[in-house]
Description:
Strand content: 15-25%
Shape: elongated
Helix content: 40-55%
Amino acid sequence: MSPHGHFSQIRGTVSAQQGPKPFCRDGSGKSRAQTGTTPSTRFFGINLFAGRRPQNLNGFWRVVAQSLSGSVALALLTVVCFRLQLNLATTACLYLIIIVLLSLLGSLLSAAVVSLIAVGCLAYYFAPPTFSFRVSDPLNVAAIAAFWIASAVISGLVYRVRRLAEGALSEIEDRTRAEDALKRSEAYLAHAQQLTKAGSWAYERDDTCEYWSAEMFRIFGLDPLNEHPSSDRFLSLVHAEDRQRVEEAFTQHSLQGGTFDLKYRIVRSDGQIRVIRDFGAAIFEDGVVTRSVGACVDVTEQENLTQELQRREAYLAEAQRLSDTGSFGWRVSTGEKHWSAETFRIFQYDRRTKPTMELVVQRIHPEDVAHAKQTFERASQDGKDFDLEYRLVMPDGSVKHVHVVAHAVRDKSGEVEFVGAVMDVTAAKRAEEALRQSEEQWRDVFENNPTMYFMVDATGKVIAVNPFGAEQLGYKVDELVGQPVVGVFYEVDREAARRNVALCLEQIGRAKSWEARKVRKDGTVLSVRETAKAVPRVNGPIVLIACEDITEHKRAEEALRQAQADLEQVNRVTTMGELTASLAHEVNQPIAAAVTNANTCLRWLAGHTPNLKEARAAAMRIVKDGTRAGEIISRIRLLFKKGTPQRELVDLNEVIREMIVLLRSEAMRYSISVRTELAADLPQVLGDRVQLQQVLMNLIMNSIDAMKDVEGTRELGIKSQHSENEHLLVSVSDTGVGLPPRHADQIFNAFFTTKPDGTGMGLRISRSIVESHGGRLWAANNSPRGASFYLTLPAKPEARE
């Protein structure tokens, strides 16, 4: 038998299915108990129990009154019958009517008294002789006797019938009262079920639905008039995830009986999901299960509240776990304590342990016990909030730092209870200690490090300087603090220093380095390399500056630069010495041409008719040849010039052409053809013209040296073009002997050479020059023979024309 099994036709119509009704059948607002009577107690408008008064009158006087009433009626009837001269039989019949009515309305005794009076009246007034109680005619005696017997019988029968009727009507009245009480009870139950959202049900052994309350239909969203749920219909309402569990539970109950308590979800026809709690119990008769009864409660709101409470508790527990904060309650009068799960975790006690003050004190560090106890005792006595920090010693010997904050509250009876939080601040304490040590270490580094440190605020004023930094500049610390940081810079470098500090403040967190010069208090100049970074602070960003004294480094660098310049000069002089014959030939050509043109000019002027036009043309050629010779000598002098490199915008193609002019005679000397392929739209580069000339001259000379002893075609190719990343690419190729086998990676090393009279510094100096210009120099073998040297230099896009 399943509590919600087979739903057969529901027997009868249960008034509660239609909702609570007024406590009456006719639909009026009053019940029969309120009207004081019932329709069945009236007969032809006469109240049959009008004589049933409350027992407040004496029975005797009631009989007397009824007897007098009957006697008066009998007297009146006698007068009427006597005047009408009715016979004895007719009058007796009329008397019987009065006696019957009296029997119905009065008591049996009053009816008997009236019967005796009636017998006397019949004998006195209607039986001859009249006005005498003596009856002469035996027939009249028989008639009077018959009247008396009939009245007695009728009075007895009427009295019995009346008693039976009274009993029946009393039973009907009691039943009516019971029905009214039952209806009131059902209405109360229906109202109670509606208020509590609890419906009741009953099923017979054969799974026939014996009863479903109206609230059951409302809970399941069914119509009690138009829809009778079947077994399949009920199961279809159960949520798909709960259906199998519900069916198994009901099947087990049908087989084993007993009670069940089941919670499941239903999906109503309107799509609402409701949570139902179903209670049921089996009813046994003679040891056999005859039916199941139970109740369904709609617990959707409670379930939602429970889930919301559980969700909030989970959030609170997770928040406490993440923040290492537990909560507690402490009732002072009883010593009772309540701990959250996180509090148990902080104190490392099992959650099944009952928290007490003794357990708390047991964990407190011995050095903190006295202070903690004093705080707890004072709080319990004063009933005031307290705030306390102390250490805990864990079972494994580790130490925790906790911060306890509690608020005192009082209930209606005045009892004090503390509600508070326990925060595990061990990590914060460790961080504070680490920060303190870090600050001490940093302070030691700041004050004792042999590097100048400055702290500058957003306005450019010094807010801190280490003693070493002040000492290096010849000042005391307090002489620099509060002063503009640019005040210690060389006057020419102050604007650049101001811009660098401002740039650091614009790009907070990014380090920036620069070199500058500072002036000591005695006027001497220091060269420094500064690295600065702006960091945010509560009161605004500050700039941290580390200064390194590179004065000696700058001097060494300048000496090295001078030595390198001297070496480059030596290299150029050496190269020029090797080219003396070629350069002499190169200079001799324009000079010889100028002499020839001078002689020609003289001949045109010495004639009988001077040819001034031809003489002028010859003179112009003399000027041109002289200018050409001067330019060659100027370039040679420039290569021999000794001075500091000067950066300027240089046309790289023009430098290539100048070197070709200088070295053309050397190439022709060894039958070397020169082929150029120069891009027309090359931008200028920023560099030192003499140094770039030296690089190209060195590369061209190396190519000439590599080809002067080879057989076959001797060709020198020079090419300029655009490269990637806004660079220019220049290549010098030859058909010579190529790079030295097994030593190709060493040709740029200092003092490495393959020439018997070489210094091994040419390519090394050339690479240094190119790299100082932001470029790159490398070499590769050609196929089938020869080598190519490549150099890249950064272009200056703004120099394009």
